Amino acid sequence: MQSQAQIDQLLREKTDARQLPGVVAIAASGKETIYQGAFGKRDLSKDDDMTVDSVFWIASMTKAITSAAGMQLVEQGKLSLDEPIGKLLPDLASPQVLEGFDASGAPKLRPAKNPITLRQLMTHTAGFCYDMWNGDMGQYLEKTGTPGIISCKNHALRTPIATDPGTRWEYGTNIDFVGKAVEAASGQRLDAYLHDNLLGPLGMSDTSFRLSDSQRRRLVGMHARDASGALSSIPFEMEQEPEFHMGGGGLYGTAGDYIRFTQMILNHGQGNGNQVLKPETVATMSQNHIGELNVTKMVTAAPAYTNDVDLYPEQAKKWGLSFLINTAKTAEGRSAGSLAWAGLANTYFWIDPSRDVAGVILMQLLPFADTVALDAFAGFERGVYAGLDATGGQKAA
Fold first, then answer.
1. Does pTM top 0.85 for this prediction?
2. Which sign, positive or negative, has the C-alpha torsion 12, 205, 182, 238?
3. What pLDDT is recorded for position 44?
4. How far is residue 132's CA from residue 113's CA, in Å, rounded to a whole number?
C-alpha cells in the first residue's frame, strides 16, 4: 500500500543520509501487524544492518510496563492508589522539599505538606524530578554526592522532592518508586515479577533488565549527535548487576515485544491469550489522573542528554497511569484521548484506542527529543494514519 512505501522511503532516506544511525518501526491494530520496517545500521562504527528483532534500551518506555505491574497489584488489593505510600516504603514516609540553597550553597529542605501516594507517583505529581530537567536537583546531587538515577544504586533514590505532592506535574524518578512498591507488595524483585506476570504472559521474551547472549548479539549501539549534527557511536550500557531494577527506565527490548504491550492495552488487558489486566483497569489507566494540572514543557538542564521537550505545544496534555494523553487530535492524525510516551535515546510509542492502532519507533541516539528523530516519528505516524484512512480503517470510539 502507498503509505507503507512512503514510510519506507522516509526512514530509508534519513538512515542512508546518516541523519539517523538506524531505526525500527512497527504499527499494529489490536489483531495484527500493519507495518514493520528496519533501516540503517545497528551501530555506525560497525557493518551490521538494522533488523526488526534488534534490541534497544527502551529507557522510559519501561514506565508504562512497571505501572501496569503496579495496577495488577492494585486489582489484587495489595497496593492502594491513594493510601500514603510511606506505609509500604518507609523511605517515602516523610518527604522533604528542596527549597533552594543557602549562602554557603547548602541545600534548604522543609517537610512536605502532604504524604505521597501511588497515584501521584504514577502521574509524576509526587514531586520527584530528574536532574536533567531540573537544575536545582542537579546542584543537590553534586553538593551531597548523591549518585544519578542511572547508577541503579539505592542511594540514588534518596533525594528530596521539588514541590509538594499533588501540586504540579513534573517528570521524574517517580516510577522507580512504583517498581519498589511492586517489589514490597509482591515479595519479588522487579525483574522476576515482570517476567512472571507481564512479559512472560504477553510473549515479550526479548524484554529484560539484563541482556542475554542472544540479545547482546542483536544489541543496537548508542550514538550522540554533536553541535554540527553529525552522529558518532558512543559507549553505553545499563548496569547489569543493579542494586535496584530501574522501573522508570531500565529495560531493554525489541519493537516487536513493545507492540505486544501496546496491543494488550488496545485489547482491554488481553494479549497472547492471557488476560493480564481487567478491562476496567485499562480504562482507568487511560483516563486523566492529574485533574486541572497540565503536562508542562520540560526545559533541559543537561543539553548533552536532552533537548527541551514540548510535544504538541498547541494543546493541553494530561497524564494517565502512566501515559501522556493528548486532549485534541494531532497533526499526524492521532485521536484525542490517545496514550503515548518515549525513552531517552529517542524511542517512542503511541496507542490510539479509538482508531484501534498503535505504533512503536526505536532509535538509539542522544540527546532526547532529537529533531530528526521526531520528524521520523511524525512521518511514520502520518503514514500509518494515511494507510488507515485509505482502507477505511476506522473503529468507533
1. yes
2. negative
3. 97
4. 25
Residue 197 lies in a domain: yes
Q: How far is CA 310 from CA 144, 192, 198, 297, 314, in A?
A: 31, 35, 31, 5, 10
Ramachandran class of 244: left when φ > 0, alpha when ψ lies in -120 to 50, beta otherwise: beta
CATH code for the domain of 291:
3.40.710.10
Say if residue 234's pLDDT is above 90. yes
Domain annotation covers residue 338: yes
- 63 tagged catalytic: yes
Residues 13-36: pLDDT tens digits?
999 999 999 999 999 999 999 999
- The whole domain housing 247 covers 2-74+184-390
- Is residue 140 annotated as a catalytic residue, yes or no? no
Task: Given the residues 14, 41, 63, 318, select the one marked as catalytic.
Answer: 63
To the query of whether residue 171 is one of the catalytic residues in this protein, the response is yes
Instruction: Specify whether the CB–CB gap between 162 and 134 falls below 8 A.
Output: yes
Domains in the chain, number: 1
Which residue of the set 35, 130, 171, 385 is catalytic? 171
pLDDT at residue 396, rounded to an integer:
35
Task: Catalytic residue, from 14, 41, 54, 60: name it.
Answer: 60
pLDDT greater than 90 at residue 391 = no
Residue 379 in domain:
yes
Question: What mean pLDDT is predicted for residues 59-69?
Answer: 98
pLDDT tier for residue 1 given thresholds of 50, 70 and 90? low
C-alpha cell at 56: 534497544
